[in-house]
Amino acid sequence: MLSSSRNAHDENSACGKNNNRQALSTYGSNGSVQLSKQKAPKITCKLLLLSLLESICKLSQKNPENSQNMFLYIAYSLRNSGLIDDEYSKDYEAIRLAYSGAIHELLAQAHNVNMSNVHEEELLSLNKSASFMSALSSQTAYATCDEPSDSAAFSGSVDAFTDIVNHVSSNSDVSDGTFLKDSPLNFSGLEDYLSPNSSSFEKLYNVQKSRYSSDFEELKLLGKGGYGYVYKARNKFDGVDYALKKIPLTLRSLSSSNMFRESRILARLNHPNVIRFYSSWVEIEPYHHNDPTEFDSTCSEDILNSKSIESNAADNLLFDIETDSVNNGYSSTNSIQVVFEEDSYGTNFEPSYSKKQSTCSLAALFSGYKETEREYSKRRSFEKPFTGDDFLYYGKENRSDRFDKFSLSSKDEDSMTHDVPCFDQRPICLYIQMALCEETLEIHLNKRNKHFRGMLPKNLCNRYILLFSRILEGVMYLHNVMDLVHHDLKPRNIFLSSSASSEQGSVRLPCFTGKSQLANESLENKFFVPKIGDFGLVLSQSDVGESSEENGGYYFAGTHTYAAPEMLSRHMKAQAIKNSTAIDVYALGILFFELLYPFGTRMERVSLINKLKKGILPEDFLEQMPGEASLILSMLSSPAKRPTVAQILKTPIFSNMAVNELHLYEALLDDAQQQNKTLKEELEAMKIRMGATSK
Ligand SMILES: Nc1ncnc2c1ncn2[C@@H]1O[C@H](COP(=O)(O)OP(=O)(O)OP(=O)(O)O)[C@@H](O)[C@H]1O
């Protein structure tokens, strides 16, 4: 049977090969079986096996709960034997469903049957599925494994898997549940499958139902972070606009336990000052997806991404703790990232500037993922320039290890082709659906700072104090209730969500235009609720200690300007672990100063924050806001001396919420008085005009 298939394929030679590029194996001109050039990665095979298994369970058990239990029983057995990881979990369900859909189609083709005319249960009888699976898996084993030992291990896993299925089915109520691994497979449809006009597995797979495309209408790209892209998308059912974060996953991150960390943490959070999370899922990036290069820079004013090139650059400039000097030696648009690492003696920190590193995503850095030149250039063509405000510190690696991680060798490049977690190089993405926010605090402050410099008018100052108290409430919830440390608090990760005045946690702020304002021009005011977002670096307080003990190091990532000194020094590591929440307090200290004291230029920001880190505040600020000044300095003191967020909220600045509300009413009164004054002036002007015309 196989030789006739081979002949059929040989006859169709070139285009046949093309069409079957993704077939599990191809047949060479000498008749020998050759490995498919693009090999299916192992995780894909695990998912493929599990999706088959899940289908079998569904077919054998009509009751969904029973079939789920049966599936879990088998999956746990496989996992306990070390054959799979957590590919059986809900997180991968969408991928497994897509695979089983493609396998159903493939089965229909393999049996040369028109699926629409045949009852699904008849078509997919258990025997056929199991036999097909065995045949498919053994083919897959060839296509997947480089080493003979791998191949043997894979065959072993198929055997183990089949045994488990047999065991389960013999204990279930399946009437014809014998899985005959060696039963003959009807290959009558194989010639068709190998013919140039038929579908390859890849094509079948492409008909997957994408939850993203079926449930959402993508409206625009909002921005790009270290991990992925964020889109504004409208849900087709409820008509509401959401922020959808798409995080492309590498094989390594797929198998790492913290891959779903951000979505899992978000799912547990429930606080008015923390961004609202709706759902998350994993699927393969649909083909007809807007290329992020379509990012519309013209709308950067209204979208949040308008970020940051400016302030990020400033963040980098600040970060020269070695020399304590402001380093302005490189262009912000040049995608250069500063990476701090200890020298091989573990005594000094040395910033290293590297273009290549700057283009590695944080996710990649975290997972120790090696990026090939090909992937690098592919991603470069896909990405906007990296704005370079992130850094990563590998506490336990020396410089050479660090650079080895990113050095490119042909071997790496070869191995990396297996690191793409899909059949056809389209990435598997984690989707996180969140509440859409109007703008980030960073953008708001950038626009505000075009209107003000130095000390703010009292009423405006009070509003920012109120805003900060809302942020503190959110952080206190994270620290005290959820036992988390955010690790990346900064204006860009605080979102402003427009709200009704009565909404809990709302603050009334002027809607700055970002253009120079005329002295008497009054700005529209709106209510906003600040929401803490971007939980990509969040850690539970207990994990901070554990990760340190297990790995002999504590990995830090974050943003230069807001990084507490203990994040950067191995000598202070113990303090960082002991007072992990103090890391957030340090960042909040800088943020509070930024809220209260507008900077005229980027360089001024760099210089003032640099001085603040040394305990020096502007004189006018010290004079006019002594309470706030001493609080900020205490927040930037040594980790053990920093107040907790709960203690900060108890200081007279924030403790009396009635006073805080009073701030708001004072602000409202000021506005009303201002409006009253303007109206009076207009009235006077009108009277004069009327007097002139009556004469
Ligand atoms: N809920 C949201 N509503 C509106 N815009 C958002 C939302 N979440 C993210 N964005 C926009 O998408 C951009 C990217 O967000 P993301 O959280 O991925 O990264 P980031 O915070 O900019 O960087 P990183 O993750 O590297 O710290 C943000 O800068 C912001 O402009």
What's the rounded overall pLDDT mean? Answer: 66
Radius of gyration computed on alpha carbons:
30 Å
CATH superfamily of the domain at 439-514 and 523-543 and 555-675: Transferase(Phosphotransferase) domain 1
Distinct compounds present? adenosine-5'-triphosphate
Architecture overview:
It is a single chain. With 695 residues, the chain is an alpha+beta fold. Among the domains are: 209-287 and 425-431, Phosphorylase Kinase, domain 1 (2-Layer Sandwich); 439-514 and 523-543 and 555-675, Transferase(Phosphotransferase) domain 1 (Transferase(Phosphotransferase), domain 1, Orthogonal Bundle), CATH 1.10.510.10. Helices cover 47% and strands 13% of the residues. The protein is built from 30 helices and 17 strands. A hairpin with a 4-residue loop joins strand 3 (216-224) and strand 4 (229-235). Helix 3 (42-60) runs antiparallel to helix 4 (64-80) and helix 3 (42-60) crosses helix 5. The longest helix is centred in the last third of the chain and has 38 residues, at 657-694. 39% of the residues are buried. Mean pLDDT is 66; it is low at 1-40, 132-151, 171-190, 293-424 and 549-553. The structure holds adenosine-5'-triphosphate. Adenosine-5'-triphosphate is lined by residues 222-228, 230, 243, 245, 275, 304-305, 307, 362, 390, 434-437, 440, 488, 492-493, 495, 533-534, 536. GO terms for molecular function: ATP binding; eukaryotic translation initiation factor 2alpha kinase activity. Belongs to the protein kinase superfamily. Ser/Thr protein kinase family. GCN2 subfamily. Residues 216-654 form the Protein kinase domain.
